[in-house]
Amino acid sequence: MGIVLEQAIDEFQELIDKVEEPLKTTFKNVHQGYLRETLIRFLKARDWNVTKAHTMLVECLRWRVDNQIDSILSKPIVPSELYRDVRDSQLIGISGYTREGLPVFAIGVGLSTFDKSSVHYYVQSHIQINEYRDRVLLPSVSKKNGRPITTCVKVLDMTGLKLSALSQIKLVTIISTIDDLNYPEKTNTYYVVNAPYIFSACWKVVKPLLQERTRKKVHVLSGCGKDELLKIMDYTSLPHFCRRGSSGSSHQTQSVDCFSVDHPFHQQLYNYVKHHYETQGQAEPAKQGSFHVGFPEPVAERVEMAKTIESKLHKFENCNGLSKPVDDRKASP
């Protein structure tokens, strides 16, 4: 790392050292002992402009305090039937780890319906997964690997993507904005798999709107992406939707659905949140309102992308064959 970048990190740290409570306490939950890596993430998100990175981080810390994010891992989504509904309609899970030790998050973009609960429960669930990743999972794998691991990879399954996605753009924009402003640079690489034609068409118009830093992270893979993903992870870490065409002679054909509420990751997360609620001296509530979080104003880039995608999807409203597999050569970024 160059001298100029080192100076930027040092200058940034001097500024952050001056923040007062309660921002100082919530910052500890953000960096989890990996202060330098955290400062670098915010600097990258603001193109190494120290002033802008400082403003971004302070606003993030204020958002955490104002919305009690530090306590969100003690706020279970109950009853359990509601949690199951959220998991069945907001498809996300962990399938394993890359050979470098990064968690592999699998996301069912095309088949997530977000139609079984209010927007607040979906946002609460998303933030809980973020916080569990950053405060429990990543510190654990860092200790196991003997080095800081502060990012993950995401495999985005576009199976089933269709025009109904139009109704989800607002919610997806809210969640994406929360990530952009408060969890920047937490994803090392995005792998897009099972992309239908409609994704290819949207990608062509959205790609130019992305910052170069983001564009370089996105890789659209051929088909289910199995061959490419096996270059960075073992077969057992492949998401279930990437295991098509596997030979039963060398691999176990039974795939574990990492989206399922019964998957070990979701069971561990739910039990962790439930335990932390109960340690407050209370029994599990039979019913509880959602954990309302203030929605930040979407950044200009997100607004433009949402409008572009919405416009593109409208053009397909009267078209047929939207599930046609994408021509992988045309989909490559």
Describe, in plain words, how this protein is organized in 3D.
The chain folds into 2 domains: 3-66, N-terminal domain of phosphatidylinositol transfer protein sec14p (Helicase, Ruva Protein, domain 3), CATH 1.10.8.20; 73-242 and 254-276 and 304-315, 3-Layer(aba) Sandwich (Phosphatidylinositol Transfer Protein Sec14p), CATH 3.40.525.10. It contains 13 helices and 5 strands. It has helices at residues 3-16, 23-31, 35-45, 50-66, 80-89, 119-145, 169-182, 197-206, 212-215, 226-229, 264-278, 300-315, 328-331, and strands spanning 92-97, 103-108, 152-157, 187-193, 218-220. It has a 5-stranded mixed beta sheet, with no helix packed on it. The chain is globular and about 50 Å long. The two termini are 28 Å apart.
Task: Break the fold down into its secondary structure elements and pairings.
Elements: H1 3-16, H2 23-31, H3 35-45, H4 50-66, H5 80-89, E1 92-97, E2 103-108, H6 119-145, E3 152-157, H7 169-182, E4 187-193, H8 197-206, H9 212-215, E5 218-220, H10 226-229, H11 264-278, H12 300-315, H13 328-331
Parallel strand pairs: 2-3, 3-4, 4-5
Antiparallel strand pairs: 1-2
Radius of gyration: 20 Å
Termini separation comes to: 28 Å
The H/E string reads: HHHHHEEHEHEHHEHHHH
Overall mean pLDDT score?
Answer: 86
Strand order of the largest sheet: 1-2-3-4-5
